[in-house]
Amino acid sequence: MATRGTTGRASRPVSETSEYYSRRLSQLYLMRDGDEAYLLDKGTVKVWPIAKTVASTLERVLGLGRTLPPGAESWGDLWPVLARILEQPTAFPPGFAALESSLDEEVTTKASVATLPKLAINVANDCNLACTYCYANEGLYSSGPGMLTESDATAIADRFAGIYSCIDRVQFMGGEPTLNLPAMEAAAVAFSRAVDDGRITRAPKYQLVTNGVHFSPHFLAFCDRHNVELTVSLDGPAEVHDAARPTKGGRGSYEMVRRSVDAAAAAGIPYGFEPTFSRVHLRAGMNLIDLCTWFRAEFGVGVLHAPPMSSNRYVDPATDIGLSVEEKVREFSAVSRWGIKNLLVRSELLMHDYTARILVSLATREVNATICPAGVSQLAVSVSGDVSPCWMFTDAPEYRLGSVWDEAGVVTQTGNDRLRGLEGLDLRSHPVCNSCAIQPVCFGCKGGDFHESGSPSGKPNCDYMRAMVATCIAEVLGGCAPAAEPDRGDDDHRPTFGERIWRDLIPAVIMPPPPPTGARIFLPMPTLRPMP
Fold it and tell me: Distance from first CA to last CA of the chain, Å, rounded?
């Protein structure tokens, strides 16, 4: 759960003042490109536009303060300047907080004694597609094909219902979960029985991530019976989707997915989309703005969640369609500028989900507590019953926290020790995060970072996040000038503020070398409580 940043200057003894301002000065970041400049205070999540006549002077003041030791005589000249800056209210309009209602709710609080916010159950180590970028190795992960049995699905539900009095959400995963309807039905029935028996307070909210290839009448009836929300992996128009997500026989899957979506709509089943934006889109002449526009035209989607495709360990580098750093910076900065102009100039809610999340964080000044829910407010169970922090780590032995079949607990003491020992690699304590200007408003995917970098401490996706935050600040505070049409293609692309300065925001932090091959590496997760 996000926690609101503290504000204001505390009343402190003179002996502590220089130490206080030295710490606060280290939290101020001047983002500047030519005559355009903005000051971000990551300690309170406040931000201000800086006039060009002041920017150079402020840059010198901040540079001087960073070289002064606490107690230096020169602090007497800096205190009044810093005090005036820090006491100013943020210039970021609070009205952007209203965008929060357009975002999918995603909790990131730790599991409590009574509540597990999210449990992901993998019901199928198999898939009927052969997606070109699959992090799950076409649903096989590292252990080969297999299906969760009905009895094991029941046992998993009973085990967690015996630990927690409330499991807020259950997400069925794969592979492709629609291939194993009996296991999902068995788990849902077991949770309903746990409600009747008084073991849990209510049935979980059910979610299901699917490729949408085939929604049978029995599957749709299951979704209706248990109020299942669907997330469909549709990557865009046919020429893009079919190239990225073919069947195992090499045929396109677009038409099958459209039929399934139509069937879900006719049955009244709630559904949303999560396309993966990749180099396949760019090769087809479709940028990220185009993708958002297409989903609005086809399905009325106003805020689209479309993460970038990054490299992963299962993909042949020769056929890798992951985006480069520069491509991610360009596309996600441009879509942020476009989305803000849609809202402020065209009075239309049409933007990328990441843009909306950044705007909400800057408007509410709420500090993100962790990068993502993995291992903090979420656990995942594989087909074999192994427990991990997230489905992204299925079958990775170094991330195994325990097993539903282990009498010592679904998260063993060893699992807890691993999580406790690596708490220092999450958003609030990772050395790169601690030195980064956007730390309080950042978010991401630990599993995606691992698959791309091969290390839990890797940070391969920070650059485009920094560019997005800088772009959002500049577009809102710099005055969003009307534009006839959003940028299209490389020929007329105008770099955003974030695209121009993102390299200046890279923290000067020297990371330790990656672990040697075969070394045990663990996830950057906060502590989970011991479980019976």
Answer: 25
